[in-house]
Amino acid sequence: MAAYAVKHIVDEQGPLLANLKAIRKTPHSYTSREPEASEAAAGGDVYVVEVRKEKAVRTYWLGYKYQAREKYAPAGGGVWKGGFRFRNSATPGDRADGVYFEVLPQITDAALCQWLSTQTPMAELPEPLIEQLEAVIGAHAAAAREYA
């Protein structure tokens, strides 16, 4: 099953943790990328990465991981807040698979940061980079929280 990285850009969308209450209940992410949104909704893992710009340097922080089960488009053919065409999410009302962080760990792996810097806001992750993201989760396991 494919896995995807979704970038949450702080300068455009505000801090990821501002949405923590909703994320804990039903993790979700937004994109305008098709077919990635449909493919992710078939049970793909989604890693949501906060992108911060500090001076001229971009840094990457792992916010949460969840297994997508749904894809929604807003009613009436409109767009979601932020101009996105699709919302992927876990199944509302079911316990989501994955973890979230209340204090985001920084992604420091050079290859992963380089890859993130060249990708669209939602992109399929190559297998070695999935392993790097899982290593971040493992290294910060004490801070990782499971969904309720």
CATH class: Alpha Beta
Q: Give the tally of β-strands.
A: 10
Relative helix content:
10-25%
Large-scale geometry: globular
> What summary fits the major beta sheet?
7 strands, mixed
CATH topology: ph1033 like fold
Short description:
This protein is 24% helix and 34% strand. It has 148 residues and is an alpha+beta fold.
Describe the structure in your own words.
The protein has 148 residues and is α+β, with helices and mostly antiparallel strands. It has one domain: ph1033 like fold, CATH 3.10.590. The strands form 2 sheets. Strands 1, 3, 4, 7, 8, 9 and 10 form a 7-stranded mixed beta sheet that branches. A 3-stranded antiparallel beta sheet has the order 2-6-5.
Describe the protein's topology.
Elements: E1 3-9, H1 10-13, H2 20-25, E2 28-31, H3 36-40, E3 45-54, E4 57-67, E5 70-72, E6 86-89, E7 98-101, E8 106-107, H4 110-117, E9 122-124, H5 127-139, E10 144-146
Parallel strand pairs: 1-3
Antiparallel strand pairs: 1-9, 2-6, 3-4, 4-7, 4-8, 5-6, 7-10
